[in-house]
What we know:
Layout: E1 10-15, H1 19-31, E2 34-39, H2 42-51, E3 56-60, E4 62-63, E5 66-67, H3 68-78, E6 83-88, H4 93-101, E7 106-109, H5 114-122, H6 139-153, H7 158-165, H8 169-177
Parallel strand pairs: 1-2, 1-3, 3-6, 6-7
Antiparallel strand pairs: 4-5
Helix pairs in contact: 2-3, 6-7, 7-8
Amino acid sequence: MTDVRTTDARTLLLLDDDDVLASRLAKALTARGFEVTRAATAAEAIEAARADSPEYALVDLRLPDGHGLDVVAELHAIDATTRIVVLTGYGAIATAVESLRRGASDYLTKPVDADQVMTALTREAGGQEPTREFTVPSLARVEWEHIQRVMTECHGNISQAARVLGLHRRSLQRKLSKYPVSR
Length: 183
């Protein structure tokens, strides 16, 4: 197999099991000058990093075969110079702190766009104030994220999620029909 890297291409390992998001981000980051290697599982990501340590890594926390925090620690152990950004749909201060402790340089909560990812990947260490991802989310945003978490745990069953949340089913449906609130 031939290696077709250009001299100025920056290597990026993209670990996310959401194929639609990973495809979208890979395409956008490739257009911005990255050579993207995709992985859908922790094992694939670690294997790829051992074969060719990337300059950058974008790591999802929830994975089918493990936890993204373990991958962050392993990537950091493989190459401490790899700039690792954690990406999650279930942001929490505790996981943000733990990811930074294990070697990540930034933490983003979904939904994100390619520009936010680029900023996090290319930001100089200590060069800027924290991004808006580190600001305290609004109460409405926290409620929406909690509802999404419960819906995931209930496998999309609205009736079951409404019982867990202590809401009437129609009230939950109204909340779900609203777009996610801004931070």
